[in-house]
Design goal:
The chain has 13 helices and twelve strands. Helix content is 44%, strand content 15%. α4 packs parallel to α6, α8 runs parallel beside α10 and α12 runs antiparallel to α13. The mean pLDDT is 95.
Length: 353
């Protein structure tokens, strides 16, 4: 997708993003602002300190509303006031291990949060395009080596993955029950594991690597043999913007879309940690410390042939380039650079690659 297509389409469009203060939400907010959209965000306070949202100063560049997707009445008021044309739903409890610690909150946020957003869309005639962002973990994972396709059964194992499967089913039901008249195009997108600058979350491999590197400590890898579809954050975000745009213009594009890297970039966590050490330099190394812990999928890949066929999409970065861009951003941050400028530079590089 070329940037000029985005800027032509999104210029002046009213866009609402839930979860805009998170890692992906912050990058998406910046992309949409740069494309000329009028962006409103609805989210809890940033989930980490520091956060990408705060270090880039995004709150002064958009209408940022603090709210919980579990609060239907507040959400309704925001929809009534902003009258969005396009809605991206990213708000979620996104960490697998946290979902074991607090399954009720995870289900409330990831399932009823989706219900509430769809209910607001049902009551808001201005919305023409809706994208629910879920995860590659929605599939019933049989640990086989071929990638899951959009028509494979949904049945996530842990509370996070399962709640996202439920979020998909809620979206399917609302689409059939309330939007078959064609008023609003509705899609879901199931993305692989994203990496990139500005992710400060706990219990994610790249933020753990950066924290260790900044303290000149060895990186602890708790599950080095698990295979994941790692991709740079701008890959799925450009796809989300494409789906929302294309289905706004033609409802025939609505549906369910995987977005992930090519097979050669589906690597083990240990391989990813090794790549990180190589790119970071300074003699950094990682050590294997399998901690047992709750069940997490060991092998997971996506079949992305549908999105490639429908939109002619191909990934722009391999996993090594994704790690390089992430390290570049992290080192600039640790050096006290202007992080909005750095983020913008990486956006420009991505779309010109």
């Amino acid at each position: 997708m070329r940037w000029n297509e985005f800027s032509e389409f999104y210029k002046g469009k009213k866009v609402l993003i839930t979860g805009h203060t998170g890692f992906k939400g912050s990058w998406l907010s910046r992309l949409l602002i740069r494309a000329g959209a009028s962006v409103t965000g609805y989210s809890l306070m940033p989930p980490t300190t520091p956060s990408l949202f705060e270090v880039t100063g995004l709150s002064s560049l958009m209408d940022s509303i603090t709210g919980d997707v579990r609060d239907l009445e507040h959400l309704k008021k925001v929809f009534e006031q902003t009258k969005p044309e396009i809605v991206f739903h990213l708000a979620a409890q996104p960490i697998v291990r946290d979902s074991y610690k607090d399954p009720v909150y995870t289900y409330e946020t990831n399932v009823m949060g989706t219900v509430n957003v769809l209910e607001c869309i049902r009551l808001t005639p201005s919305v023409k395009s809706f994208l629910n962002v879920t995860t590659d973990k929605v599939y019933e994972n049989k640990e086989w080596e071929y990638g899951y396709r959009e028509n494979d059964p949904l049945d996530g194992y842990d509370p996070y993955s399962n709640s996202k499967s439920c979020s998909e089913l809620v979206t399917h039901s609302y689409a059939k029950s309330f939007f078959s008249d064609g008023r609003t195009a509705i899609s879901t997108s199931r993305a692989g594991n994203v990496i990139g600058g500005g992710d400060f979350a706990n219990d994610r491999i790249i933020p753990d690597c950066i924290r260790a590197a900044s303290k000149k400590q060895d990186i602890i890898v708790r599950n080095p043999h698990s295979t994941r579809p790692y991709q740079h954050v701008l890959e799925p975000l450009s796809v989300y913007m494409t789906i929302a745009m294309k289905q706004y213009e033609d409802r025939a594009f609505q549906g369910y879309y995987n977005v992930g890297p090519d097979d050669r970039d589906c690597v083990t966590t240990g391989t990813l940690a090794g790549l990180f050490c190589e790119v970071w330099g300074e003699g950094l190394k990682w050590i294997n410390r399998f901690s047992g812990g709750p069940h997490e999928a060991n092998f997971l890949k996506l079949d992305c042939s549908r999105i490639k066929n429908v939109f002619g999409w191909t990934p722009r970065y391999g996993v090594k380039e994704a790690v390089e861009k992430t390290v570049q951003w992290a080192k600039a941050y640790l050096d006290g650079a202007d992080m909005l400028e750095m983020t913008d530079r990486q956006i420009t590089e991505f779309f010109s690659s």
